[in-house]
Structure of LysR substrate-binding domain-containing protein:
Amino acid sequence: MLDVRRLRLLRDLSRLGTIAAVATAHTYTPSAVSQQLSALEREAGLPLLERTGRRVALTAAGRLLVQHAETVLAALEHTDAALAAARTGLTGELRIGAFPSAIRTLLTPALITLGEQHTALDLQLTELDPADVPAALLERRLDVGLTQDYDVVPLETGPGLSSVPLLDETVHLAVAAGSGIGTLREAARSGWILAGPGTLCHTATLKLCDTAGFTPRARHRVDDFGTVLALVAAGQGVALVPQLATDRMPPGVRLLPLPTRRRTRIAYRTGTAAHPAVAAFIAALPPLI
């Protein structure tokens, strides 16, 4: 019989690429991960890994087992959801990951409603960049989370996750009212207010500017859109801002709609959609498309 915990380690090795990364994700030592994978090889009766020095790669049997592991793990999630549905009332934890502007505009009302309707459900919210949500879900640090993609930055969550649409919105170029800028290309020489490197907003800005033929010159690096818009109003630079973040527009900012969209989805591990807590969260956030 194959050990489910070891199957999860093999799946994560396929996803993350190195034993060190798997060890970090599971708070194990690399040695412990290697030992567990060796034990899985003995259970399978076939070599699952090819070792070259410090590097490892999956064999054909290893890749096949990863495919079946996804099915096994999803079935276990389905089973857990069915057991949770058999209980009376919603209890336990629901760990949620979301980005700041969605927390302020979308999640706060939903969390209030869920808290009032299900007083025994422990809602735990973590502010998280959408780019980090898929890994947090697969590593079981979250139960649900908001993911995003832009036309220029497609979402690639990989196997093991499912999602439903939540929001489809316009992306704007925010400029100072008197700047005279009318197109993205005309902002090429401006100072830019960029999100932190590695965030989805930062990547999308670089991609969009690249399509316009320039690389933005970073003047400030700010992740909070309220601060971004205040800096734009003060003439401190230009920035890309999604529609969701424009609910508190300061005077002195002009928005130029761009021919690109940002999409937000509610993501969860495959097999958990029927879990009562996950289903209640999805129901509390109807699609805004």
